[in-house]
Amino acid sequence: MGSNVDIVKGVYEAFGKGDVPAVLGVMDDKIEWRQPVSLAPTFTDQVGPQAVAENIFGKVMTLMEDYSVNPEEFIDGGDIVVTLGRYRGKGAKTGTALDARMAHIWRFGGDKVTSFETITDTHLWREALGM
C-alpha cells in the first residue's frame, strides 16, 4: 500500500474520471465529511460514504457544469494530508463561473479516510449556485 498522499492523489484521479466507487472505497464506513457552514442548506456535513455520494457528489454534479477539482499541492503530515488547489466549473442554473481556491484536510485511520474537511471561498460558490 502506498503512502496516504498516494491514496489521496488516487482519489482525485478517480474523481476526475467519474469513478465514484473508487473514491468511496477509500472512505471509512463512518467517515465524517465536513462542509463550510455557509453552504448550508445545499451542502451540509455528512457521515458515511453513501451519504457523501448522495448529498455531496450527487448535488455537485446536478448543480454544476464542467466541474473539476484541481489539486496543486500535497502536504504530507502522515495520518493527515492537506491538499491545496482550485474548484472550477459553472453554476447550472446561473451560468456563473466558479474558480475558487480550496484546501482539503484528509485524516486517516489505517488505510481509510476517517475525516475530510473542505475550506473554500463560499461567497464564490454561493454566487455560482445562485444561493
Describe, in plain words, how this protein is organized in 3D.
This protein has a single domain, classed as Nuclear Transport Factor 2, Chain: A (Roll). 32% of the residues lie in helices and 44% in strands. It contains four helices and six strands; from the N terminus they run ααββαββββα. It has a six-stranded mixed sheet. It is globular and about 40 Å long.
The overall pLDDT average reads 95
What is the count of structural domains?
1
Number of strands: 6
> N-to-C SSE series?
HHEEHEEEEH
Classify the helix fraction into a percent range. Answer: 25-40%
Judging by the overall fold, what is the CATH architecture?
Roll
Poorly predicted segments: none
Largest sheet: 6 strands, mixed
- How many H/I helices? 4
- For the record, the CATH class is Alpha Beta
What would you report as the Rg, rounded to the nearest angstrom?
14 Å
SS class = alpha+beta
Strand order of the largest sheet: 2-1-6-5-4-3
Measured distance between first and last alpha carbons: 42 Å
CATH topology: Nuclear Transport Factor 2, Chain: A
Shape: globular
